[in-house]
Design goal:
This protein is α/β, with parallel strands linked by helices and 268 residues long. It contains six helices and 15 strands. The protein has helices spanning 14-30, 50-54, 61-73, 156-164, 180-196, 245-254; strands spanning 2-7, 35-37, 76-78, 82-86, 89-97, 103-108, 114-116, 122-124, 136-140, 143-147, 169-173, 199-203, 220-222, 228-231, 237-242. A hairpin with a 2-residue loop joins strand 4 (82-86) and strand 5. Helix 1 packs parallel to helix 3 (61-73). The chain is globular.
């Protein structure tokens, strides 16, 4: 399975970003990608005030455009994340579309990014966002895939739930910053892949120092042995990787971590 991670710079308006995303998805398809991942909040700059401003209901204009792009290119599209409105609540939501344009999964970010690091980053998603409450898995011709968003990857329980449900890879639209990125980005993706023996794919926006939020970039794919398959730098690019599921099964047979779990001991 060939995947493409679109590390795009996020511009001020949804219209600009949809144009960029469509062009990049077409390039990814032309280079043989089976599945394309967009970054977290690729639709608008990553600011809490923007989330309710640009939020749409499921099935709205942006949803329809993303569906049409997937159908036009004949690709599995993990459409990063966008602000979704339901009643009076706003969610950080990722939609997955299959090549006929049908939406086959929706993940609302479960863990909201509320941090205040001394001499570092302060960000409070809960100022305008509500949290999701589901573990998200979707079917593909290559097997089950998991989906979570950015801060979700820091919570091992969610990744383990996906692994125990039989996923072969996990897609993670994300936007680590210049405080958390250098410290934890590669480490976290390698650890989750190693512990659960599945591929992890983290797609970040490109870094833009003129923006109010400075994404780390470094979109990454890690394999079930805990190795980095490929990692970008901070600039705009499309990252490609081949996922070898036969190798994944071989690793699981030779080092059967999931089979060796002692659930009789893991009691709180």
């Amino acid at each position: 399975m060939k995947v493409a991670l679109v590390q795009m710079r996020v511009l001020p308006t949804p219209k600009q970003n949809i144009i960029t995303a469509r062009d990049c998805i077409k390039k990814a398809k032309a280079n043989g990608a089976d599945l394309v991942i967009l970054p977290e909040m690729f639709l608008c700059p990553y600011e809490t005030s923007n989330f309710p401003r640009f939020a749409e209901q499921e099935g709205g204009e942006i949803y329809q455009i993303l569906s049409a792009i997937a159908k036009e290119t004949g690709i599995y599209l993990v459409a990063g994340s966008v602000p979704e409105m339901e009643n009076s609540a706003v969610y950080n939501t990722s939609y997955v579309f299959r090549p006929d344009g049908m939406c086959i999964a929706k993940h609302r970010k479960v863990h909201l990014f509320d941090i205040n690091v001394t001499d570092g980053q302060r960000f409070q998603e809960s100022e305008t966002l509500s949290a999701g409450d589901k573990c998200t898995i979707f079917e593909t011709p290559w097997g089950k895939m998991g989906l979570c968003i950015c801060y979700d990857i820091r919570f091992p329980e969610l990744s383990r739930m996906m692994a125990l449900s039989g996923v072969k890879a996990v897609c993670v639209p994300a936007a680590f910053n210049l405080t958390t990125g250098p410290a934890h980005w590669e480490l976290t993706f390698r650890a989750r892949a190693l512990d659960n023996q599945v591929y992890f794919m983290g797609c970040s926006p490109a870094r833009d120092m003129q923006s109010s939020y400075h994404a780390y970039g470094h979109s990454i794919v890690t394999n079930p042995w805990g190795e980095v398959v490929v990692q970008a730098k901070e600039n705009e690019t499309i990252v490609f990787a081949e996922l070898d599921f036969e190798k994944e099964e071989k690793i699981r047979e030779e080092l059967p971590l999931l089979k060796h779990r002692r659930t009789d001991v893991y009691l709180l």
